Fold this protein.
Amino acid sequence: MDLNKLGRAWDRLGRDDPLWAVLYDPAKRGNRWDADEFFMTGREEIGATLEYVATLGIAVGASRALDFGCGVGRMTQALAAHFELVDGVDIAPSMVAQARSFDPPANCTFHVNQREDLSLFEDGAFAFVHSRLVLQHIPPSLTKGYLREFVRVLAPGGVAVFDLPSRPAATLNARIARVVPPLVLNTLRRVRYRSGAMEQHWIAPDEVRGILEAAGGRVADDGPVPAVSSALIAQHRYCVVRVSSAPRGGAAKDRPTPSRPPSPRSVPSNSGCPGCRTSRR
């Protein structure tokens, strides 16, 4: 799935049932999420994330934060209570329109970004970068570029926390999904769920660490997150600190990443698929 197809899938979800698409719950399908309850989950998750960073002995500046893959602003609004300015970016215009409609705090700004980079932001613009259950839906060739961009837009000493699947799950569903062609699975899901189908991807942790370090980041902590893994993928969380203004030996985008075995082929998924208890943003 390329960036244009990805954008169209999420734009369709943003028009049809945005809160359910962002935070999957079978009981909430059909626009049944209560908005107050929905945004409370974001406040709880951001609080837990910042506590996690604090346990690592890392101080996070309060100047400006970026919510990558912001959707309707579930996390963006929560970040606004902790930072002076917060920017949310999303590929889907319908999601960004919804985010602006949910009465966000005055220090939140939302952007549609349909580029393969974050060039709308200057180097070192942010004290904190956050992305929650977003990168799994983006092809690895694009995700690797976004990881470099996370480090680029961090100020020296800035912190990024994100999750990215490390491998397929050891489940029957994951084994079946690796065998059935993506086009077939996506078509079946569109019929069943009447919504956009998304692929799920993963990158091995060693490769992720190499990309981040080559870009000028230090991986302060990483590890599996079983509570947010699904029947198809095993989630992995990273906490990264920017330690330099530029990587040694050239710009991050020009640095070769360590040679790794090819990643397994992607597993198609849908935000509402059975066993996929995942949220986005």
Summary: The chain is about 35% helix and 20% strand. Residues 97 and 172 are 38 Å apart (CA to CA). Residues 248-279 have pLDDT under 50 and may be disordered. The two ends are 20 Å apart (CA to CA).
